[in-house]
Amino acid sequence: MHRSLHGRGPLFDTDPPGLAARLVGARPYQLRSSPYEHQDDLPFVVFTGGRGLGKSALLAEIRTAYQGHTPIALVDGEEAQFAGPPANRPREAWSPVAQALTTVAEQLAEPVKGAGRISFPRLASGLLAVAAGGWSDRNVARIRQEAERILLLNDSRSFLDGLAGRWVSKVIAKLVASLSNAGPVVEPIIEASLEAFSEGVAPTHRRLRRAATWFRDYPNAGGNPKLGLILLSGHFRAGGDSRTHAERFLVRALLADLDDAYTGVMQRSHRLGRPVVLIDNVQAPAGRGLMEAVLRDRADGLGDQVVFFSALRGKTHPALRNAGRRTLAEVARTTGWEPGSSPSSRALLVSLPPLTPDDTLHMVGALCRGLDVPPQLPHATHRLTGGSPLGITLLSESARQNLPSGAGSLGTLLTGDVALHADHDGRPAYRELLDRLVPGGRLDELTVLAAAHDRDSALALAEDRLPDDFGAAGVLGLQQRLTEEGWPTADGQFVGDPFLRALLLLRLHHLDADHAQWQAVHRAVIDHYGERATADAARYRLHHELALGEADLAVAHLRDTFPGTEVGAWLRSLVFVASAPYYHAHDPEGHDFDGHDHRAAVALGRTDQAQRPPEGVDAALHLRVRRLLHAVWQLTDPLVLPDPEVAERLRFELEQLSNLRPGGTALLWRASRDWPSDALAGRPLRVPGDDEGGGQG
């Protein structure tokens, strides 16, 4: 199998067949049939997840796997063509759904191996009636252009076929001739098109006649296809629920045309599997309109045999409240899906998991073949990205381009330039990632709020560092946007996803050469918690002091609380405080200096002699806690490769501390065994006995 995606086997497997093969009835990448799992009712599959999880790449790979084997179409609901009507076309005669139907039909019409083109006469008739609602200005050039695109959906011959072109030209001439100098144009256009569809005795014309009469079943048409098309056009122009009703009938026309192409023994014997429609960003108006029309008709008993795979940004949607839910792994061999009575129950939400460390290892190895890759780079990449396919892919590409010039850490790979296209200049990898993960504005505001820990601290930061017109409404709006786009939440962090937060904080650090904004933001958070005496407030203050390079307060706090604090709570505080971001200085172009990371030197005791512990404290404990803090800070930093020598020193320091707390010896000793190996393998540092990792606060 020639598959470019990692970690998506449950969809693309062929033996035993994965989800795609069981629904489509054909093995991906192969001209071979596969048994159907669902013979009649089909689930409308919706892949869910936040940005960067590879939903778009997944749909693109499905198209690659089946293109040329079975009719297949891919549309993105957020494409510019669905944002508004073309120039000079009235909005009342255009909608994202109608535009999407045209685009889908054009792709499905392409011939596949062993079978010719599919024609869409029903859909073309409806689209022509809709378009005619915007032709009152008698702009002949625009009418010809719009009519030609629609009419070319009618013919089963190639668009390049001279006969098809002549037929279209003839019909367009008839349509233009039907226009008078005044009065409505919809009825004359519909009359002319029905007349053109009724001419001739060839199989193509018989198919056109049969399709034209299909609209006699439009509600209140009374068996009159002309009246049905007139009503359809009027409902579309009316907008609102009336337009939704008309769009639903247009979707039904597309599916009826596809059913025609598969009707009869000869037709089916020449076609492999089922047709496939792929809808990216199905939450956008174009995608949602298509999805809801299909779900409603299927719930009403109007079945079809089209396989729909779509991608939803986030975890759920109001239109999918009763949908079935599975993980990708759970649909590897069977969906276990059965429809209910509601339209949304006809959908099946399939959540995409992050990639595994092994997937990351293979991806880095594939892109960096022939390069001297640091052995810990793949695991560190997985730790930083959390398994984000986008993050892993772009970091691997940066490694391919920047390792030869001396880049040796994830920080330098993120700040190093990466050129994603041969004809474009490179730009820092972290900026490329943020452009994809945080499109749509408010990146500056989110960059500042990434330093916040909850809504209160975010509001304080907004008041101190952001424009007056942003305020509480802006904070709440960004918080809602993060949730809607599928980003996870985390206690103690306003931006819950560690990868996104790391990228935002890196951008904050690089906003100016002297790091003035970095310092101001962290000082504002420190001031916000300055008057509070809670344990959380203390941890947050120390975390931000450490982010400013000031470790003395953190050392003093951890030293003084060690004797009396429950050991598990003390270890959690240590890990959270040490999760403070640490960045080298950078040059005016934004690239990190290959400067000295002083944390390793402190952790290894090389600076002990220059230290003078405060009067009246246990000097040995003070220095040990100082070494331990810097060891955890270095080993858990997502932007550097963990130092094996520091990991060994971490083991030693925790082991020595276990001798000082008889009641907590077991926890400290267990941590001395687990933490070094976890850090080197790119795993979070977990406090022994905790069900959840304690490394993110």
Q: Which strand-content bin applies to the residues?
A: 5-15%
Gross geometry: elongated
**Which oligomeric form is depicted?**
single chain
Rg calc: 31 Å
- Helical percentage: 40-55%
- Based on secondary structure, the structural category is mainly alpha
Low-confidence stretches: 692-697
Distance between the termini: 43 Å
Overall number of strands:
8
Main sheet overview: 6 strands, parallel
Main β-sheet, spatial strand arrangement: 2-3-4-1-6-5
Q: For the residues shown, what is the average pLDDT?
A: 90
Number of helices: 30
What does this structure look like?
The chain is mostly helical and 697 residues long. It is built from 30 helices and 8 strands. The protein has helices at 9-12, 19-24, 55-66, 96-108, 121-132, 140-151, 162-177, 186-198, 203-212, 225-238, 240-261, 265-269, 285-299, 357-367, 377-385, 389-402, 410-415, 429-437, 443-449, 455-465, 471-484, 498-509, 516-529, 535-547, 552-561, 567-577, 598-603, 619-635, 644-658, 665-680; strands spanning 44-49, 72-76, 276-280, 307-313, 324-327, 347-351, 417-418, 427-428. The strands form 2 sheets. A 6-stranded parallel β-sheet has the order 2-3-4-1-6-5, sandwiched between helices. Strands 7-8 form a two-stranded antiparallel ribbon. β3, α13 and β4 (307-313) form a beta-alpha-beta unit. α5 packs antiparallel against α11 (240-261). The model is unreliable at 692-697 (pLDDT under 50).
